[in-house]
Amino acid sequence: MGILVRGEPLSWEETKELSDYIKDHGVKQFIHLMKTMKQRKYEELKWGDEIEYLLFKFDHEKKRVYLHCKTQEYLERLAKHNCKFEMPVTFVEEYGSFQIESTPNKPFLEDFEELNNVIRDMRHRRKELMLLMDSETETVLTLTNFPRLGCPDFCWPPAQPSPHGNVSQSMFFPDECINPHPRFPNLTRNIRQRRGKKVEINVPIFKDENTPSPFIEFPDIPAAKPDHVYMDAMGFGMGCCCIQMTFQACNLCEAKVLYDQLAVVTPIVMALSAAAPIYRGYLCDVDCRWNVISASVDDRTDDEIADPGKNKARSSRYSTINSFLRSEKFSDVNPPYNEEVYKTLIEANVENIDPLMARHIAHLFIRDPISAFSNRIELDDENDTDHFESLQSTNWQNMRFKPPPPGSDIGWRVEFRTIEAQITDFENAAFVSFCILLSRAMASFKCNFYMPLSLVQINMERAQKRNAVLDEKFYFRKNIQCCKCECEPEIVEMTIDEIINGNGDFPGICKVIRAYVNNMDLEFVTATRICSYISLIQKRASGELKTTAAWLREFVHNHPLYKQDSVVSEEMTYDMLMECNAITNGKECPDLIGTLRQTSDHNNKHFRRDSYKTNDNDDPISPVFDANSDHVW
Ligand code: GLU
Ligand code: MG
Known about the structure:
binds glutamic acid, binds magnesium ion
């Protein structure tokens, strides 16, 4: 989550004073970057995942489970041992002192064998972490959120909230649960101070038979809405975990197309991966983390929210993108942007900064910088990018465009940011593989997913609803073939089942992927593995398998201690996490995974390398695949 600079963090007052300076130099740094990176082109696709984990401690006698604030200790021990590993692993801090993030040590390449390596790598990372733990009482899980985060005594070692402290001032979330790296407490405090008060998060409660109605927990706190679960700290959001995928494109144009096309798919994948239905010990009426994180980092003042004005943000810093990078026509939400920054970017007259790119950056720059370090203010704008990154890394959107960092051989990258963390490495590998295969299939068949961004934003809201995967319809483009980039879309509302598995009128995304994979003439073992990944996604879409969120809900409903009152107690949570831990470590779970996990290793074939374009002036969209063919395996 952003660059972890060491140094003295600045307070909000100090950062505010420097706001114009930081933005001014952030733009200069971006312009310089875009100028010097003009020629950067790569032949090869590279990609990788980032997984966030939660650390837990069990007390089997008391039937309790705690979030274990042990990240720092594990990181230090990993650093000591890493050199001895056969396959080194990369772990870094995340927001919570009970979270850890890992990435493959080096990016994956465009090679089918890599799809076998994804799960191998994920298993290896988890194993290295587990080796540091007492296997009887400690574990690491890829759960999107801890159901009882913010309940009394939810963490270990025990710590109490500090409502009058100077960091989050939460009545639920102790500051000890924030990673001690100065970036994290500082971000937390500065967001609160910029906003003028604590963040306010209200998630609709799931009303069961015995849930009080109206449900009012805190009659004296105006911020706490009736019939909602109220939360008041950044940790409720940023303490959630996800998987992010980074794609390195071969050139800037391909990166833009990937950014735009994948943005359309982000809500669909979020609904399919939904895994967060319980907050602060209550079953809620949402299945995903997205709006919780969004509210948890919303630094806008009441006045700004009430009257966004011309240049002011209409959404939190954590939200859906506001413009495409390659389509003016479908960027229909007319986002606010920093006009001065826009003008500077256009007047710089840099080939890589067209009006859409300028608008994207100028939109990021409507925010104030919210985190700065005293030793990193006066910088060399030709070699440093801290001020650009300061804005870039605190605009958390469903997609992120990442220009090449200076002084590296890294290329143009885009990041896909909506996948919720799944219980098993198999599911996580399936989602990651689905996304990479989709990106390749889209490129190969020159698919066109463009549709108005306003509809993508509506889809993002729908995707979070309870059981959205089966109950909601989503806007999607029917004519994904035969199109020039800006041609008229035929937009229809479809269920996720129709979008993924198709209907009489629409081939379905998985059919496109299967047709693409089918062309590869794979050997049996690799084909089987890929097939099991795609099947998982297809079965989640059709309802044959449950989403993690649906499975967790059902676990609660079936628990003998559940009183139909929406409360997820300590003992229920203990049982739930023991079960999750068992499933993570191999126990079968037919409702969630079926029998798909039994897959095998190895084999090696190359992806067919069909870049969206090789020449920056080509239109990337043209039809190739035969949607009517039944030739799938
Ligand atoms: N944990 C955040 C999420 O679930 C992402 C933080 C980051 O940007 O790394 O979306
Ligand atoms: Mg992260």
